[in-house]
Amino acid sequence: MNAIPAAAPEEPRVVLTARGLGKDFAGFTAVNNVDLDVEHARIHALIGPNGAGKTTVFNLMTKFLQPTRGQITLLGQDITKTRPDRIARMGMVRSFQISAVFPHLTVLENIRVALQRPNRLATQFWLPLSALDRLNGRAEELIETFGLAEWTDTRAAELSYGRKRVLEIATTLALDPQVLLLDEPLAGMGLEDVRMVAGIIRELGKTRAVLMVEHNLSVVADICDHITVLQRGEIIASGSYATVSQDPRVRTAYMGTEEP
Ligand SMILES: Nc1ncnc2c1ncn2[C@@H]1O[C@H](COP(=O)(O)OP(=O)(O)OP(=O)(O)O)[C@@H](O)[C@H]1O
User: Fold this and answer.
1) Confidence (pTM)
2) Are residues 209 and 258 both part of a single domain?
3) Could you tell me which residues come within 8 angstroms of residue 167 by beta carbon, excluding any fewer than 6 positions away?
4) What ipTM is given for this predicted complex?
5) Residue 191: which CATH number?
6) Same domain, residue pair 161 and 182
7) Which residues are listed as membrane-spanning (predicted)?
8) How far is the centre of ligand 1, averaged over its atoms, from the C-alpha of 55 (Å)?
9) 187 and 86 in one domain?
10) Residue 5 domain-assigned (yes or no)
Protein backbone atom coordinates (compact mmCIF):
# COMPACT_ATOMS: atom_id res chain seq x y z
CA MET A 1 0.00 0.00 0.00
CA ASN A 2 2.25 2.77 -1.12
CA ALA A 3 0.07 4.60 -3.57
CA ILE A 4 -2.65 6.18 -1.42
CA PRO A 5 -1.28 9.37 -0.01
CA ALA A 6 1.57 11.55 -1.02
CA ALA A 7 2.16 12.82 2.49
CA ALA A 8 4.67 11.14 4.76
CA PRO A 9 3.68 10.25 8.34
CA GLU A 10 3.81 13.37 10.43
CA GLU A 11 3.61 14.53 14.00
CA PRO A 12 0.10 14.26 15.40
CA ARG A 13 -1.98 17.39 14.94
CA VAL A 14 -5.65 17.81 15.63
CA VAL A 15 -7.71 18.01 12.42
CA LEU A 16 -11.27 17.43 13.66
CA THR A 17 -12.70 18.54 17.00
CA ALA A 18 -15.95 18.53 18.91
CA ARG A 19 -16.58 20.65 21.96
CA GLY A 20 -19.60 20.27 24.22
CA LEU A 21 -21.44 18.36 21.47
CA GLY A 22 -25.04 17.46 22.25
CA LYS A 23 -28.11 16.17 20.46
CA ASP A 24 -31.67 15.96 21.74
CA PHE A 25 -34.43 14.06 19.97
CA ALA A 26 -37.83 15.37 21.02
CA GLY A 27 -36.68 16.01 24.57
CA PHE A 28 -34.55 12.84 24.81
CA THR A 29 -30.84 13.57 25.17
CA ALA A 30 -29.03 11.05 22.93
CA VAL A 31 -25.62 12.78 23.12
CA ASN A 32 -24.35 15.16 25.75
CA ASN A 33 -21.19 17.16 26.37
CA VAL A 34 -18.95 15.21 24.00
CA ASP A 35 -15.43 16.53 23.38
CA LEU A 36 -13.32 14.86 20.67
CA ASP A 37 -9.89 15.53 19.22
CA VAL A 38 -9.20 13.52 16.08
CA GLU A 39 -5.58 13.67 14.98
CA HIS A 40 -3.83 13.45 11.64
CA ALA A 41 -2.21 10.06 10.97
CA ARG A 42 -4.10 8.43 13.83
CA ILE A 43 -7.02 6.00 13.96
CA HIS A 44 -9.65 7.01 16.49
CA ALA A 45 -12.46 4.63 17.44
CA LEU A 46 -15.84 5.41 18.96
CA ILE A 47 -17.03 2.42 20.95
CA GLY A 48 -19.74 1.73 23.50
CA PRO A 49 -22.65 -0.58 24.18
CA ASN A 50 -25.81 -0.56 22.04
CA GLY A 51 -27.64 2.74 22.17
CA ALA A 52 -24.60 4.58 23.62
CA GLY A 53 -24.83 7.33 20.99
CA LYS A 54 -22.00 6.30 18.63
CA THR A 55 -23.98 6.62 15.41
CA THR A 56 -25.50 9.90 16.56
CA VAL A 57 -22.02 11.35 17.28
CA PHE A 58 -20.82 10.03 13.90
CA ASN A 59 -23.75 11.67 12.11
CA LEU A 60 -23.17 14.92 14.00
CA MET A 61 -19.49 14.99 13.06
CA THR A 62 -20.31 14.41 9.38
CA LYS A 63 -23.12 16.99 9.59
CA PHE A 64 -25.83 14.50 8.61
CA LEU A 65 -27.42 15.61 11.87
CA GLN A 66 -27.43 19.17 13.19
CA PRO A 67 -26.20 19.40 16.80
CA THR A 68 -28.47 20.81 19.49
CA ARG A 69 -25.43 22.09 21.39
CA GLY A 70 -21.71 22.47 20.90
CA GLN A 71 -19.18 23.21 18.20
CA ILE A 72 -17.36 21.17 15.54
CA THR A 73 -14.21 22.23 13.70
CA LEU A 74 -12.52 20.69 10.66
CA LEU A 75 -8.97 21.71 9.78
CA GLY A 76 -9.33 24.79 11.95
CA GLN A 77 -12.65 25.93 10.46
CA ASP A 78 -15.92 26.00 12.36
CA ILE A 79 -18.26 23.58 10.52
CA THR A 80 -21.03 23.49 13.12
CA LYS A 81 -23.47 24.98 10.63
CA THR A 82 -21.90 23.75 7.40
CA ARG A 83 -23.96 21.57 5.06
CA PRO A 84 -22.77 17.96 4.57
CA ASP A 85 -22.17 18.39 0.83
CA ARG A 86 -19.61 21.11 1.55
CA ILE A 87 -17.76 18.96 4.06
CA ALA A 88 -16.37 16.58 1.41
CA ARG A 89 -14.86 19.46 -0.49
CA MET A 90 -13.24 20.64 2.74
CA GLY A 91 -11.41 17.33 3.10
CA MET A 92 -13.62 15.01 5.14
CA VAL A 93 -15.55 12.07 3.67
CA ARG A 94 -17.61 9.32 5.22
CA SER A 95 -18.47 5.78 4.28
CA PHE A 96 -21.83 4.21 4.87
CA GLN A 97 -22.74 0.93 6.52
CA ILE A 98 -24.71 0.03 3.41
CA SER A 99 -22.44 -0.30 0.45
CA ALA A 100 -22.70 2.63 -1.91
CA VAL A 101 -21.11 1.15 -5.01
CA PHE A 102 -22.94 0.70 -8.32
CA PRO A 103 -23.59 -3.07 -8.56
CA HIS A 104 -23.76 -3.28 -12.36
CA LEU A 105 -20.53 -1.38 -12.94
CA THR A 106 -17.15 -3.06 -12.82
CA VAL A 107 -14.54 -2.27 -10.18
CA LEU A 108 -12.69 -0.04 -12.65
CA GLU A 109 -15.91 1.73 -13.72
CA ASN A 110 -16.91 2.36 -10.10
CA ILE A 111 -13.52 3.89 -9.36
CA ARG A 112 -13.62 6.00 -12.51
CA VAL A 113 -17.10 7.33 -11.66
CA ALA A 114 -15.86 8.29 -8.20
CA LEU A 115 -12.78 9.97 -9.65
CA GLN A 116 -14.77 11.91 -12.23
CA ARG A 117 -16.99 13.50 -9.62
CA PRO A 118 -14.40 15.61 -7.81
CA ASN A 119 -12.65 16.40 -11.08
CA ARG A 120 -15.94 17.49 -12.67
CA LEU A 121 -15.01 15.43 -15.72
CA ALA A 122 -18.32 13.63 -15.93
CA THR A 123 -20.04 16.52 -17.63
CA GLN A 124 -17.35 17.13 -20.23
CA PHE A 125 -17.75 15.60 -23.71
CA TRP A 126 -14.19 16.07 -24.73
CA LEU A 127 -11.18 15.64 -22.54
CA PRO A 128 -7.55 16.31 -23.20
CA LEU A 129 -5.64 13.02 -23.30
CA SER A 130 -3.51 14.17 -20.40
CA ALA A 131 -6.63 14.43 -18.18
CA LEU A 132 -7.74 10.92 -19.16
CA ASP A 133 -4.26 9.59 -18.53
CA ARG A 134 -4.24 11.15 -15.09
CA LEU A 135 -7.64 9.63 -14.36
CA ASN A 136 -6.62 6.18 -15.56
CA GLY A 137 -3.36 6.43 -13.66
CA ARG A 138 -5.11 7.31 -10.42
CA ALA A 139 -7.75 4.58 -10.96
CA GLU A 140 -5.03 1.96 -11.44
CA GLU A 141 -3.22 3.27 -8.38
CA LEU A 142 -6.35 2.93 -6.22
CA ILE A 143 -7.16 -0.53 -7.60
CA GLU A 144 -3.62 -1.69 -6.90
CA THR A 145 -3.49 -0.09 -3.47
CA PHE A 146 -6.71 -1.75 -2.37
CA GLY A 147 -5.68 -5.16 -3.69
CA LEU A 148 -8.47 -5.18 -6.30
CA ALA A 149 -6.34 -5.71 -9.43
CA GLU A 150 -7.60 -9.27 -9.92
CA TRP A 151 -11.18 -7.95 -10.00
CA THR A 152 -10.66 -4.88 -12.21
CA ASP A 153 -13.26 -6.00 -14.76
CA THR A 154 -15.58 -7.79 -12.34
CA ARG A 155 -18.98 -6.24 -11.74
CA ALA A 156 -19.36 -5.01 -8.17
CA ALA A 157 -22.43 -7.22 -7.69
CA GLU A 158 -20.23 -10.30 -8.16
CA LEU A 159 -17.65 -9.32 -5.52
CA SER A 160 -17.60 -10.88 -2.06
CA TYR A 161 -19.16 -8.74 0.67
CA GLY A 162 -15.74 -7.82 2.07
CA ARG A 163 -14.36 -6.79 -1.33
CA LYS A 164 -17.46 -4.70 -1.98
CA ARG A 165 -16.70 -2.80 1.24
CA VAL A 166 -13.08 -2.40 0.13
CA LEU A 167 -14.27 -1.02 -3.21
CA GLU A 168 -16.58 1.34 -1.37
CA ILE A 169 -13.73 2.62 0.81
CA ALA A 170 -11.59 2.98 -2.34
CA THR A 171 -14.27 5.19 -3.94
CA THR A 172 -14.40 7.43 -0.85
CA LEU A 173 -10.65 7.91 -1.25
CA ALA A 174 -11.15 9.46 -4.70
CA LEU A 175 -11.34 12.91 -3.13
CA ASP A 176 -8.08 12.19 -1.30
CA PRO A 177 -9.62 13.30 2.00
CA GLN A 178 -7.51 14.28 4.98
CA VAL A 179 -10.17 12.98 7.33
CA LEU A 180 -11.97 9.68 6.72
CA LEU A 181 -15.00 8.59 8.76
CA LEU A 182 -15.96 4.94 8.68
CA ASP A 183 -19.25 3.67 10.01
CA GLU A 184 -18.83 0.07 11.21
CA PRO A 185 -16.49 -0.83 8.35
CA LEU A 186 -16.22 -4.47 9.50
CA ALA A 187 -19.91 -5.11 10.13
CA GLY A 188 -21.16 -8.46 8.85
CA MET A 189 -17.78 -9.72 7.64
CA GLY A 190 -16.15 -13.10 7.99
CA LEU A 191 -12.76 -13.45 9.63
CA GLU A 192 -10.75 -13.28 6.42
CA ASP A 193 -12.49 -10.12 5.20
CA VAL A 194 -12.13 -8.55 8.66
CA ARG A 195 -8.37 -9.11 8.48
CA MET A 196 -8.14 -7.71 4.97
CA VAL A 197 -10.21 -4.58 5.64
CA ALA A 198 -8.56 -3.95 9.03
CA GLY A 199 -5.17 -4.07 7.29
CA ILE A 200 -6.34 -1.53 4.74
CA ILE A 201 -7.69 0.81 7.43
CA ARG A 202 -4.41 0.51 9.32
CA GLU A 203 -2.53 1.65 6.20
CA LEU A 204 -4.97 4.49 5.51
CA GLY A 205 -4.51 5.73 9.07
CA LYS A 206 -0.81 6.21 8.60
CA THR A 207 -1.25 9.28 6.46
CA ARG A 208 -4.69 10.66 7.29
CA ALA A 209 -7.05 10.91 10.23
CA VAL A 210 -9.58 8.08 10.56
CA LEU A 211 -12.58 8.19 12.89
CA MET A 212 -14.52 4.94 13.01
CA VAL A 213 -17.48 3.49 14.83
CA GLU A 214 -16.76 -0.18 15.38
CA HIS A 215 -18.10 -3.06 17.45
CA ASN A 216 -15.22 -5.47 16.77
CA LEU A 217 -13.14 -4.77 19.86
CA SER A 218 -10.23 -7.02 18.97
CA VAL A 219 -9.71 -5.06 15.74
CA VAL A 220 -10.14 -1.78 17.64
CA ALA A 221 -7.46 -2.98 20.09
CA ASP A 222 -5.24 -3.96 17.21
CA ILE A 223 -5.36 -0.95 14.88
CA CYS A 224 -6.71 2.07 16.79
CA ASP A 225 -4.45 4.64 18.45
CA HIS A 226 -7.16 6.36 20.45
CA ILE A 227 -10.47 5.10 21.75
CA THR A 228 -13.41 7.11 23.04
CA VAL A 229 -15.95 5.10 25.00
CA LEU A 230 -19.53 6.34 25.10
CA GLN A 231 -22.31 5.29 27.40
CA ARG A 232 -25.79 6.82 27.47
CA GLY A 233 -24.58 9.60 25.21
CA GLU A 234 -21.62 10.69 27.35
CA ILE A 235 -17.91 9.94 27.26
CA ILE A 236 -16.91 7.61 30.08
CA ALA A 237 -13.30 7.00 29.06
CA SER A 238 -10.81 8.12 26.45
CA GLY A 239 -7.25 7.06 25.62
CA SER A 240 -5.32 4.05 24.37
CA TYR A 241 -7.01 0.66 24.33
CA ALA A 242 -4.81 -0.44 27.24
CA THR A 243 -6.03 2.55 29.26
CA VAL A 244 -9.74 2.39 28.50
CA SER A 245 -10.00 -1.39 28.81
CA GLN A 246 -8.75 -1.14 32.40
CA ASP A 247 -11.22 1.59 33.31
CA PRO A 248 -13.75 0.26 35.83
CA ARG A 249 -16.60 2.25 34.25
CA VAL A 250 -15.85 0.75 30.86
CA ARG A 251 -15.72 -2.74 32.29
CA THR A 252 -19.06 -2.19 33.97
CA ALA A 253 -20.60 -0.71 30.81
CA TYR A 254 -19.59 -3.78 28.82
CA MET A 255 -20.45 -6.33 31.47
CA GLY A 256 -22.93 -8.85 30.17
CA THR A 257 -22.13 -7.97 26.57
CA GLU A 258 -18.56 -8.06 25.38
CA GLU A 259 -15.57 -7.50 27.65
CA PRO A 260 -13.09 -5.04 26.18
N1 LIG B 1 -33.75 9.91 15.15
C2 LIG B 1 -33.88 9.53 16.44
N3 LIG B 1 -35.00 9.85 17.13
C4 LIG B 1 -35.13 9.49 18.43
N5 LIG B 1 -34.18 8.83 19.12
C6 LIG B 1 -33.05 8.49 18.48
C7 LIG B 1 -32.84 8.83 17.11
N8 LIG B 1 -31.60 8.37 16.76
C9 LIG B 1 -31.08 7.76 17.85
N10 LIG B 1 -31.95 7.85 18.89
C11 LIG B 1 -31.73 7.33 20.25
O12 LIG B 1 -30.50 7.85 20.70
C13 LIG B 1 -29.80 6.86 21.44
C14 LIG B 1 -28.42 6.65 20.81
O15 LIG B 1 -28.59 5.99 19.58
P16 LIG B 1 -27.39 5.64 18.60
O17 LIG B 1 -27.95 4.96 17.40
O18 LIG B 1 -26.57 6.85 18.37
O19 LIG B 1 -26.55 4.60 19.48
P20 LIG B 1 -25.39 3.61 19.03
O21 LIG B 1 -24.35 3.68 20.09
O22 LIG B 1 -24.96 3.92 17.65
O23 LIG B 1 -26.13 2.22 19.09
P24 LIG B 1 -25.86 0.86 18.24
O25 LIG B 1 -24.55 0.34 18.69
O26 LIG B 1 -26.99 0.00 18.68
O27 LIG B 1 -25.90 1.22 16.79
C28 LIG B 1 -30.65 5.61 21.45
O29 LIG B 1 -31.39 5.59 22.66
C30 LIG B 1 -31.57 5.81 20.26
O31 LIG B 1 -32.81 5.17 20.46
Assistant:
1) 0.86
2) yes
3) 99, 101, 107, 110, 111, 146, 148, 156, 159
4) 0.96
5) 3.40.50.300
6) no
7) none
8) 7
9) yes
10) no
Atom of ligand 1 nearest to the CA of 48: 21
* Residues 246 and 198 occupy one common structural domain: yes
Give me the helices (H) in 91-246, please: 107-119, 129-145, 161-172, 191-204, 217-223, 241-246
pLDDT tens figures, 153-190: 999 999 988 888 889 888 888 778 899 999 998 888 88
**Chosen domain end from 176, 201, 223:** 176
Beta pairing partners, 231? 234
Please state, in angstroms and rounded to a whole number, the distance separating the CA atoms of residues 161 and 192: 11
Number of Cβ atoms within 10 Å of the Cβ of 140: 15
User: Residue 188: CB within 6 Å of ligand 1?
Assistant: no
Provide the domain count of the chain. Answer: 2
The residues facing 226 across adjacent strands are 44
Predicted confidence (pLDDT) per residue in 198-253, tens digit: 999 999 999 999 999 999 999 999 999 999 999 999 999 999 999 999 999 999 88
What CA–CA distance (Å, rounded) separates 15 from 30?
25
Looking at 176, 192, 217, which one is the last position of a domain?
176
- Contact predicate 31/22, CB 8 Å: yes
**Distance, CA 202 to ligand 1 centroid (Å)?**
28
3 lies in a domain? no
- Using DSSP bridges, classify how beta strands 226-231 and 43-47 pair: parallel, antiparallel or unpaired: parallel
**If you write DSSP's letter for every residue of 206-217 in order, what string do you get?**
TTSEEEEE---H
Q: Which atom of ligand 1 is nearest to the CA of 58?
A: 18
Rounded Cα distance between 135 and 133, Å, is 5
244 and 200 within one domain = yes
pLDDT of 99 above 80 = no
Q: Is residue 243 part of a domain?
A: yes
Polymer length in residues for the chain: 260
